[in-house]
Design goal:
It is built from 24 helices and eleven strands. The protein has about 550 residues and is an alpha+beta fold. α15 packs antiparallel against α16 and α18 packs antiparallel against α19.
Length: about 550
């Protein structure tokens, strides 16, 4: 039965790809071009083919193939470092709206997850969903204490659908990689693997709730960002209950103006929130599109949907901050050195060649006003250039780039005069001072001092053990070599000692003369000179 379902799915995918001429777009001119002609004679492909632009055809094909392919398209839309610009822009139009699943299914899933009837778990529960997407749908409810909440429920039996479609995606990616010359540079199989991990993570409501709780702690008491409360007593692996918030969507500019919100201030706050998450907390919301961001009546941002979060290593944080500062100082040599030091490109990369490539890509940007320079596009251009030198883009850097592009888009939608550099530069400079300046040194000593004190008594034993192990394992020099070196050192020490004595004896007559030994002067000088000569000769 499973094999039959998969065959039907393959036939549908084949029909859709053929109708929108995706097969011709990908395989035409390759060694698999015969598949295009083969597809044309299949009965389900006798329908007239679409004549739209390539980008529109790709978007429509993904929409017709369903929610999992739509999610893939959305993920790809952030990879402007991989895709042609027109395709990336068109894919950004994909909407993750799906018909809601049956109300009774939703009730059954919640009751099974919470281990009690919905009427007991909630004082009120609206079976009609507020919103429905490919992974889950959301219901309005009230807890027994009157707290208004939203309940997010994962779609029933969604995991087998994801596994089936992802398996087909892997097959298509592998075919693409073998058929098209430039495909290896695009890493299609790796992209699908990254997508599989992301979408499977989104199925786990416990994980998403934990992300929300961490982000809330990070911004506790902040006047910048509000994160809704998670109600763990009403949360399980496939159900999450979260405080309901009332605000205006960040994309509804007219409503924000009517509410008296200062858009210029709001756009600057968005930038500060992003850099605070990335550099101060090292934990950032990586899905900050307009549907997930609201503005509360008090002017604070409010975020929802915490399925995709990003983190960076401390090294990546520092190198990114230095890269941004070096770029805006037009120090392309330093940008190149940072790429090599961080091993984003291979260690044997010639720094002058990388510097020249980065300069040729970045210098034209400076023809535009600073406020029009896109941080996200700068990062993307740097990654694209570095790819030519063997750079492998890491998932956390892709998430960062995606988030930065989203933040820029939101910020400039609110304030088209937003100068991202003017807002970000003081933050980055202060952060660098805290990390590598005197403040950073003091902070590092304070944080590590207890550990150093604790470990100090064990150091002699560890050193002895290491040396003993080296001796027994034959690491270092052989005993014969050691003996020979010891003899040479002893002989050298003896010669040095004798020379020192000879010099002292040679000086002695002059010392005697200065003390008034005039009568015996010749005798003393002769004796000491003879002794000096004898010692040196020996």
């Amino acid at each position: 039965m499973k094999a039959i379902r998969q065959l039907r799915r393959l036939i549908k995918i084949n029909r859709v790809l053929s109708h929108y001429e995706i097969d011709k777009m990908v395989l035409g001119g390759s060694k698999f071009a015969w598949l295009v002609w083969f597809n044309a004679i299949l009965p389900w492909n006798w329908k007239k083919r679409s004549q739209l632009s390539r980008a529109e055809r790709i978007r429509l094909a993904l929409e017709e193939l369903g929610p999992i392919f739509i999610k893939l398209g959305q993920a790809l839309s952030t990879r402007k470092d991989l895709l042609p610009y027109d395709i990336a822009i068109e894919l950004a139009k994909l909407q993750d709206d799906c018909p809601p699943f049956d109300e009774q299914h939703s009730l059954e899933l919640i009751e099974a997850a919470l281990g009690k009837p919905v009427g007991e778990a909630f004082a009120e529960f609206d079976p009609m969903p507020m919103a429905s997407a490919s992974i889950a749908q959301v219901h309005a409810a009230k807890l027994p204490d009157g707290q208004e909440v939203v309940v997010k429920v994962v779609r029933p039996d969604i995991k087998p659908v994801i596994e089936q479609d992802v398996a087909i995606m892997f097959m298509l990616a592998s075919l693409f990689e073998k058929a098209v010359k430039i495909a290896k540079r695009l890493h299609p199989v790796e992209v699908v693997a990254e997508f599989e991990k992301t979408i499977l993570d989104e199925l786990d409501m416990i994980r998403e709730a934990s992300n929300a709780a961490q982000l809330k702690r990070n911004f506790d008491g902040s006047d910048l960002l509000y994160v809704p409360e998670i109600y763990w007593s009403h949360t399980a692996e496939n159900v999450m209950t979260m405080e309901r918030i009332y605000g205006i969507r960040i994309s509804e500019t007219e409503k924000l103006i009517e509410a008296g919100v200062d858009l210029k201030d709001l756009s600057a706050k968005g930038v500060i929130i992003f850099f605070t998450q990335v550099f101060k907390h090292n934990f950032f919301h990586a899905d900050m599109h307009p549907g997930n961001i609201f503005v509360l009546p008090d002017g604070r941002y409010a975020a929802i949907d915490f399925g995709i979060m990003g983190t960076l290593t401390p090294e990546d944080q520092r190198y990114l901050a230095e890269n941004f500062l070096a770029f805006f100082n037009r120090d392309y040599l330093r940008v190149s050195e940072l790429h090599i030091e961080s091993e984003w490109v291979p260690r044997d990369t010639r720094v002058n060649e990388l510097e020249s490539a980065i300069r040729s890509v970045c210098e034209p940007i400076w023809d535009r006003p600073l406020k029009e320079i896109s941080f996200g596009l700068v990062l993307m251009r740097l990654f694209q250039t570095a790819r030519r030198f063997g750079m492998e883009i890491q998932p956390q850097l892709v998430l960062l780039q995606k988030t930065l592009l989203n933040i820029e888009g939101l910020g400039r939608q609110l304030d088209d005069e937003l100068d991202l550099w003017d807002t970000a530069k003081p933050f980055l400079e202060d952060w660098m001072q805290e990390r590598v300046g005197p403040k950073g040194l003091v902070k590092n000593i304070k944080s590590n001092l207890p550990f150093w004190i604790e470990q100090a008594p064990t150091l002699p034993g560890l050193l002895h053990s290491a040396l003993d192990k080296m001796a027994h394992n034959g690491v270092g020099m052989q005993s014969e070599q050691l003996e020979r070196i010891e003899k040479e050192l002893a002989q050298q020490n003896r010669h040095n000692r004798n020379r020192t004595i000879a010099v002292a004896l040679a000086v002695a007559p002059f010392l005697a003369h200065s003390l008034g030994f005039e009568v015996e002067e010749a005798f003393v000088i002769a004796i000491w000179a003879l002794a000096a000569w004898f010692v040196v000769k020996k």
